[in-house]
Amino acid sequence: MDEKKRRLVFLFGGILVAIIFLSSYAAFSNNGSPTTVTTTAKSQSTVFVTGYTNAIITNYSDVAYVSFTNNSNSVKNIVANSLSNLQANGTVVDSILTNDSYQVVLSGISPYDLQQLLYKQTNSANYITVSSTADVKLPQTITFTYSNVPINLHLTTTNYSVYLSNVKTIGSTINVTISTLLYTNNESIYNNQFRVSYNG
Questions:
Q1: Residue 130 is inside which H or E element, if any?
Q2: pLDDT at 96
Q3: Domain extents in the chain
Q4: 105 close to 95: Cβ distance less than 8 angstroms
């Protein structure tokens, strides 16, 4: 190979190396511009689940509802007089009759105590019903069921309220149903919220 051809080969080789270097630098350099990273959040699906457990009554609301299980005027008169006397001595703050049912605001007694007093006054537990909202304590762990598969979940809060159509003594154990939405990806309760209802 003569001297002229050899110089041309070296020249073209040098140009080729320069082109490769510059193209590699442009590809890997961001020239100071910020790098954008895109992430895709995985959507979380939920399913409706229910669980059954026992709860302990710890307290009651100060509002009770008295309804009649028959149309006996004598029983209604006895209840009206009893509520009037309780209001006179400060045990009842107020009682409002609406649609043949009383809403009673209590001060010195619980809804259960009111129920027992009215049972005694009417000489029967079959004439009236006293209902109220009870504070209950749930177990720390609840077993829910989804597609016949049991799922044990830990509750962060165990104190809840539930409406009782027929009040029971404080300390009683009642059966309740717990319903909620459950995240399927990590088996956690949606927004840590669920509903408690009395099975009775």
A1: strand 128-137
A2: 96
A3: 1-31, 44-200
A4: yes
